[in-house]
């Protein structure tokens, strides 16, 4: 299935600050997950050699991670994030650094909550979609990195 068929068309929204073609600085509010999704699609669009499953998995993981950061780290007050994406012949990777509150994050492998749980699936989903997820607190910032190895074109 082509990932293009899964995308919705939204008007392009200007983002707060762009340090380069592959780095986005944003503040929430007013920026939100749509800003992140538009940025991810724009950065990956020129890379037509990324197979659909790698593109879809990486985009989904990154948007889910950004959504979790915006929802949980902001603690209702808003945060500033810097998102960087790197794509080369072998790997897709991203780094999100945010000014959110320090969280008690434990990365022990993808474990889904029971079927009736109302939350707790985001981090497990991210871990299932990428090859590595790393979190650390550096000074006053939360820093997340994810990566996914690329499959060769058929």
Automatic annotation (TrEMBL):
Alphabetized GO MF terms: ATP binding
Cross-referenced Pfam families: HATPase_c_2
Keyword hit for Cell membrane: no
Ranges where the record places region Disordered: 1-30
Transferase in keyword set: yes
Composition bias type Polar residues, residue spans: 1-26
Superkingdom of origin organism: Bacteria
Histidine kinase/HSP90-like ATPase domain segment(s): 30-144
Keyword vocabulary terms for this entry: ATP-binding, Kinase, Nucleotide-binding, Serine/threonine-protein kinase, Transferase
PANTHER family documented for this protein: ANTI-SIGMA-F FACTOR RSBW, ANTI-SIGMA-F FACTOR RSBW-RELATED
Protein name per Swiss-Prot or TrEMBL: ATP-binding protein
UniProt organism field: Cryobacterium glucosi
Lineage per the UniProt record: Bacteria, Bacillati, Actinomycetota, Actinomycetes, Micrococcales
């Amino acid at each position: 299935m082509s990932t293009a068929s899964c995308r919705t068309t939204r008007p392009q929204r200007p983002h707060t600050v762009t340090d380069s073609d592959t780095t986005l600085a944003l503040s929430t509010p007013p920026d939100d997950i749509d800003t992140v999704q538009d940025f991810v699609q724009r950065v990956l669009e020129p890379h037509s050699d990324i197979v659909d499953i790698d593109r879809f998995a990486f985009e989904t993981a990154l948007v889910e991670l950004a959504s979790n950061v915006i929802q949980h780290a902001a603690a209702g007050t808003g945060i500033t994030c810097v998102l960087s994406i790197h794509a080369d012949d072998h790997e897709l990777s991203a780094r999100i650094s945010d000014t959110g509150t320090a969280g008690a994050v434990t990365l022990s492998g993808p474990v889904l909550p029971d079927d009736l749980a109302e939350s707790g699936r985001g981090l497990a989903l991210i871990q299932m979609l990428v090859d590595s997820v790393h979190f650390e607190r550096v000074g006053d910032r939360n820093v997340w990195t994810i990566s996914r190895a690329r499959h060769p074109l058929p």
